[in-house]
Automatic annotation (TrEMBL):
Localization, UniProt: Cytoplasm; Nucleus
Top-level taxonomic group: Eukaryota
Ranges of residues in domain RMT2: 148-371
A GO CC annotation given for this chain: nucleus
GO biological process, one term: methylation
Region of interest (Disordered), residue spans: 1-39
Species assigned in the record: Oikopleura dioica (Tunicate)
Database matches in InterPro entries: Ankyrin_rpt, Ankyrin_rpt-contain_sf, Arginine_N-MeTrfase_2, RMT2/GAMT_Mtase, RMT2_dom, SAM-dependent_MTases_sf
Entry keyword Nucleus: yes
Name of the protein: Protein arginine N-methyltransferase 2
UniProt keyword terms in alphabetical order: ANK repeat, Cytoplasm, Methyltransferase, Nucleus, S-adenosyl-L-methionine, Transferase
Main location, first listed in the record: cytoplasm
Amino acid sequence: MTQDGEPQVKRVKSSGDNEEQKPQKEEKNYDKELLEAAKANDFEKVKELVEKHDADTTHQEEETGASALMLASAHGNCEMIQFLLENHAVWNAVDRQHKCAGDYAVDGAHQPAIDKLLRHGVISEMLLGRAALNATKEDKQKKMDAQGFEDNHAYLRSKLKYDNNKVEGLLLDDKEDAVMMSWETKLMEEHARLICHNKGSVLNVGHGMGIVDGKIQANDPAHHTIIEAHPDVLKRLQETGWYDKPNVTILEGRWQDVIHKAGPFDGVFYDTYAEDDADLKEFHSHLPRILKENGVYSFYNGCCPDNLFFHGVACEVMKLELNDLGLSCEYTAMEVSVTDPEMWEKVRRRYWYRNTYYVPLCKKMEVLDCT
């Protein structure tokens, strides 16, 4: 998985690659034998092929995209999985069906194998995250975010459209991707309930369609702060009377520019658009200051939505990063319904695939007095 949560796809070798290099033919045979040995659950043969013949542990079968690690995971063979990982097998490579080794273990209900692959994935992502923080300015090349904007400023310059299809209310960007949809109402209601735990002061970052802010108001908080930056959404806030609500303060601008004016709060919710993992981590760095001692934090948990195993790894990474900041993080499963094809009409790309959503609940950890 890349730093932005995207799975690493290993390019499957083509039969036309390096045709002039005759030794490749013998090496490819060893690679093929490695897949056959893993498929047969023959660990000794796998070891022999890798240690004696330098078989490529990253090789993937042409038709299916299966790797030796995926096949070992399908058997739940933890010894073989550990050996392959130690010999450079790619934990987050995906096959032609977009399934990774962890998915193969899940399909086989091999819990020890699932746990081993999950730990490896979490450690890998944590190390990559630390490396990114320490990268030089020259190493950090700017790239398009998941929504196709060069950066958040480009998104803020774009036009948004409030729309609907046969069954859904929609907020679409200028590429027809959904910024938000009304199917999220159920989960936003739960997020609002969590952060309004004591009906104190709450902060929501990202108004969007106003769903979560409406649910926050239904919980009757003492004070309600909204941070919003997009001009079209700010216009909508004006039109729908949010500026006139007596217990509401609206901070106009990017949260990066106005967060110093805010807090502390009893509850905080974060749900932005056209931002990446680095932005979320930066926001989290403010939580120790803006969250009261008994405060509650939650966020829209949309990491790696198209692969359950990658989503699980991302959730665990997030949990550990929040732990480093002195916050606990637990997830509760919630059932949602996103299977109706009509829901996704007018939306260019579907952004949620499963009927389960994991709601994060984060709290400041108790500081023990060891004196």
